Amino acid sequence: MTKPPTPFADLVVVELGHSVSAPFAGQIFGDLGAEVIKIEKREGDDARKWGPPFWEGAAASFQTLNRSKRSAVCDLRSARDRDALLTLIVERADVVLQNLRPGQVEELGLDGATLLQRKPALVYCNMGAFGRTGPLKDRPGYDPLMQAFGGVMATTGEPGRPSVRVGPSIIDMGTGMWAVIGILAALRERAATGRGAVVDVSLFETSTSWVSLLASQYLASGESPGKQGSGANGIVPYKAYATRDGELVVAAGSDSLFRKLAVVVGHPEWIDDPRFADNPARVRHQGELYAMLDAIMLTADTAHWASRLEAAGIPCSPVQSIAQMVAHEQTAALGLVQDVPGTAMRFLGLPLAIDGERPRPSARPPALGEHTAILFGNSEA
Fold first, then answer.
1. Element at 124 (helix H, strand E)
2. Per-position b or e across 204-227, b if 16+ CB within 10 A of its CB
3. Backbone angles phi, psi at 38, to 5 degrees
4. Quick check: helix, strand or coil at residue 66?
5. Cis-peptide, bond into residue 237, ω within 30° of zero
6. Helical (H) or strand (E) element with 225
7. Largest CB tally within 10 Å, which of 35, 90, 131, 229?
8. Would you say 335 and 46 are in contact if contact means Cβ atoms under 8 Å apart?
9. Cβ 99 vs Cβ 60: under 8 Å
10. pTM for the full predicted model
11. In terms of C-beta density within 10 A (0-12 exposed, 13-18 middle, 19 or more buried), how is residue 277 classed?
12. Nearest Cα to Cα of residue 29 among 45, 15, 44
């Protein structure tokens, strides 16, 4: 097997992180070869208990977010422990990630400004809730709160029904991605100048980025987009349909694709119908069009429609469960489900490849405090 890419093998990342956003950023660095040192409180990251299901001693969600890392216990309220952590950062760290509650790192002297005075080349990333300034900067935040506050939930779900949260933790994990992007930009600048930087990302800012397309529609029209169900605001036909045995998403979002769809569903006369002449017309008359398509799709099963649509070159996909996605031959062909050294656990890998090779976890998730003695020089730190 070809050696997996490890472009960050020369980086040391200290993660003052818990829950999802900072651990996800740390996991990305770890899978790409960095030495990631996770600093945990005595009782451990709360996410260790986010189950069931549990897997080899901790919640499954914690395990996948914390592979390829080391764990050191550190009581940040202890001057002795804090001094040991400062020594570790000054002597070894290239990057510090933190998503502690607002104001905590400043109270402890572990904030970016203070640490950069000690180590000017350090890249320090704050992963906050509402951002570094403004009237809400000191409030904590969590993924569902930010899906609500950032406008995501207002556009998710069926019209006329209560708002729903997007199932995956897209705000937390998106913030982790933005943290990595910001850190890489700062590291590139450091390579040229020798100077580190403080990078700020937040859950709220990530939430606004996910609705930026919808926000542009509001800024252009003055009308706030509402719930679209499985559809997309401003593109018709473009949604999921119930079939006789499941659900099928059909993305016929251009005029040429709509003409093909009209033929496949047995209504070529729609091609010349002024109500459906182009996308703006179809958006205006989407209620009529979708009512007809909904009824037609219910007359056959998913495989029937998928076969006909694919033959006509119309993009479509069945709505798969997580189990179906994991078991699919495309998932296997890409090697997305990965074994982890030292454990029977398996996780979905990073969604990228370098020269055809997907990065792989370098180590199993650590037990709480497993590397405290190694990192701090004694078992009491």
1. strand 123-128
2. bbbbbebbeebbeeeeeeeeebeb
3. -90, 120
4. coil
5. yes
6. none
7. 35
8. no
9. no
10. 0.93
11. middle
12. 15
Over residues 67-78, the pLDDT tens digits come to 999 999 999 999
Checking if the pLDDT of 380 tops 50, the result is no
Lowest mean pLDDT among 39-43, 81-85, 135-139, 371-375: 371-375
Element (H, E) at 14: strand 12-16
The strand order across the sheet containing 123-128 reads: 70-73, 35-40, 12-16, 95-98, 123-128, 197-202
Q: Per residue in 285-342, pLDDT tens?
A: 999 999 999 999 999 999 999 999 999 999 999 999 999 999 999 999 999 999 999 9
Q: Which residues are catalytic?
A: 172
> Burial letters for 124-159: b for 16+ Cβ neighbours within 10 Å, e otherwise?
bbbbbbbbeeeeeeeeebebebbbebbbbbbbbbee
Rounded Cα distance between 350 and 355, Å, is 14
Element of type H or E holding 257:
helix 255-264
Residue 204 tokens read as: 């709220």
**How far from each other are the two terminal CA atoms of the chain, in whole angstroms?**
40
pLDDT reading at 251 higher than 50:
yes
Q: Are the CB atoms for 341 and 34 separated by under 8 Å? A: no
Residue 356: per-residue pLDDT: 95
Count of H-run helices and E-run strands, the chain: 16, 13
Q: How far is CA 221 from CA 153, 225, 226, 275, 292, in A?
A: 20, 10, 13, 22, 29
Cα separations in angstroms, 169 against 19, 21, 80, 180? 11, 9, 36, 17
Q: What is the DSSP string of 301-347?
A: -HHHHHHHHHHTT--EEE---HHHHHHSHHHHHHT-EEE-TTSS-EE
* Cβ–Cβ under 8 Å, residues 219 and 151: no
Cα–Cα distance for residue pair 24/30, rounded to 1 Å: 10
